[in-house]
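$ ./design --mode recover --in tokens.txt
reading tokens...
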């Protein structure tokens, strides 16, 4: 296989995904105007930013614990401090780079370089992210099933949540199929060996009695933190809907963020938020404003990752200065 051709194809697909995300943003702005965007940006104040940062610390800790559990399950060394720093680093990169997943790719590659086990390290990140998405889908569907009958505004969201959950599941399956194909292209790759490796890593890294409870609990913490941040954004932009309406909407919008057709997180989130809030009777403009405020709060909460990246750049200089 020609590496240059493969790289060119990857960039074409990447730019296509980014273009789709931009088109979604443009379509939303054309539909609701720039007013909701300005409203969402202006709604973020010091209080909401501090709350989002504190919640972000908790969700980052949850993601780091999940990563550590999975990595240890597949036989990799990953101290909790390094996991927290890696998660902050990847979150910041995800909020400033197109696609929303490049930070996680960087996290897996960096860990693989540190432990001299690139394949297992990258797969460990894929496993823990996939496990988190599965838990998020299960929680979201369960919440919609419970909250739907309690609020007339959330009843239409049952079918929407199920469809989005199915789309996320299909996306994850596609990722693993792609990984299998890439495994066949690697030197000495064997489909049977890949399937065996995946089965072993799934059993020990995610489904073992030592890992599974922690993976589920940490994933639930991450989902709760993201939903709480969305709630803060909604209240900041003036949404007064009850929790039985707002929580299912938040979870549906958060599931849409798993679709890698975005530009630094922007795109499908705003489109689904506009559609979701409009169908719930809250107005598309209110959904866009809330989504924009949420995006700003997520960026603020991820700023410690910028400090981690800066420390990474300065550390070699400090070492050379002492040398």
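writing sequence...
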């Amino acid at each position: 296989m020609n590496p240059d051709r493969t790289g060119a194809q990857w960039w074409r697909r990447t730019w296509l995904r980014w273009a789709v995300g931009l088109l979604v943003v443009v379509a939303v702005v054309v539909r609701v105007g720039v007013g909701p965007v300005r409203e969402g940006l202006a709604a973020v104040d010091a209080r909401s930013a501090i709350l989002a940062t504190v919640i972000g610390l908790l969700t980052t800790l949850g993601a780091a614990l999940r990563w550590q559990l999975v990595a240890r399950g597949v036989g990799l060394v990953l101290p909790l401090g390094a996991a927290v720093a890696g998660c902050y680093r990847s979150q910041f990169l995800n909020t400033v780079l197109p696609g929303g997943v490049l930070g996680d790719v960087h996290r897996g590659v960096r860990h693989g370089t540190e432990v001299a086990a690139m394949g297992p390290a990258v797969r460990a990140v894929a496993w823990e992210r996939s496990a988190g998405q599965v838990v998020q889908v299960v929680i979201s569907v369960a919440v919609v099933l419970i909250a739907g009958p309690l609020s007339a505004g959330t009843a239409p969201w049952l079918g929407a949540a199920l469809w989005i959950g199915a789309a996320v599941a299909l996306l994850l399956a596609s990722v693993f199929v792609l990984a299998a194909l890439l495994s066949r292209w690697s030197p000495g790759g064997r489909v049977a060996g890949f399937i065996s490796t995946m089965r072993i890593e799934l059993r020990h890294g995610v489904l073992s009695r030592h890992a599974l409870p922690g993976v589920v609990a940490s994933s639930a913490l991450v989902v709760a933190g993201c939903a709480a941040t969305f709630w803060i954004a909604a209240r900041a932009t003036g949404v007064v809907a009850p929790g039985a309406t707002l929580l299912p909407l938040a979870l549906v919008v958060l599931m849409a963020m798993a679709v890698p057709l975005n530009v630094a997180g922007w795109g499908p989130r705003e489109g689904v938020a506009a559609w979701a809030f409009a169908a719930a009777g809250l107005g598309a403009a209110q959904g866009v404003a809330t989504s924009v405020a949420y995006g700003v709060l997520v960026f603020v909460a991820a700023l410690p990752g910028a400090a981690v990246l800066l420390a990474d750049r300065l550390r070699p200089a400090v070492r050379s200065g002492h040398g």
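exit 0
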